[in-house]
Write a structure and sequence with these properties.
The chain has about 70 residues and is an all-alpha fold. The protein has four helices and no strands. The protein has helices at about 5-20, 25-35, 40-50, 55-65.
Length: about 70
Amino acid sequence: METPDWKASAKNILKAELTRKGVDYETLSAKLKELGIDESYNSLNIKINRGTFTFQFFLQCMTAIGVNDVRLN
C-alpha cells in the first residue's frame, strides 16, 4: 500500500476550498486580519504551496472564508 502524500492532500483541500469560495491570497490575508491573524500574501503563498501549515491555520482559513464543512475525499 502506497503512503499518502499528506502535505499534498492538505494543500489541495485548502486550495480547493479557496477556489470554491473565489478567494485569492490577498483576500484571504484581509479576511484573516479581520480575525486578528496577521498573514501576508507572501507568507500565505509559501505556507499553502508547500503544504506546511498547522491544523490550527487550516481552521483559521476555513473560518475566515466561511467554510463549515470540508470533504476529505
